[in-house]
Amino acid sequence: MKKTFFISEGILQIFIALGAIVSGLFLIIAPDGSLMRMPLTMLKETPFTNFLIPGIILFTINGLGTLISGWLSFRQHKLAGFAGIFFGLGLIIWIFVQVSLIGGGSWLQYLYFVLGLAELLLGIGIREMKNGE
Fold first, then answer.
1. What is the mean pLDDT of each run of 10 residues along the chain (133 residues)?
2. Burial of 39 (0-12, 13-18, 19+ CB in 10 A)
3. Any idea where the domains of the chain sit in the sequence?
């Protein structure tokens, strides 16, 4: 059962990370949102004039950070549970901030909220198993 939690968490984290790396890179390369077909008007009620800073955050935290977290999960590292909790919560916060700033309603926002919640819960499960040893 323990191994199943680590593998499930790792697969989930790699999936999240790859999406965030690609999307973040697209926003960094084209801060006007054109590669993602996202108009700059989406940012009119936000502190951002373009997608560069959100792209950097998406790429580094949800992308590279979650990728490293996935590596920890596959290695069954002692920090894997903590990393799952940290980055799962980070993804949930990312979605809340996104919805607060630009609005909601996209199926991708719902999907990534659920994925963040699953990552968080798996991280808690891994931590609990570690504490129960």
1. 94 98 98 96 94 98 98 97 98 96 92 98 92 61
2. exposed
3. 2-132
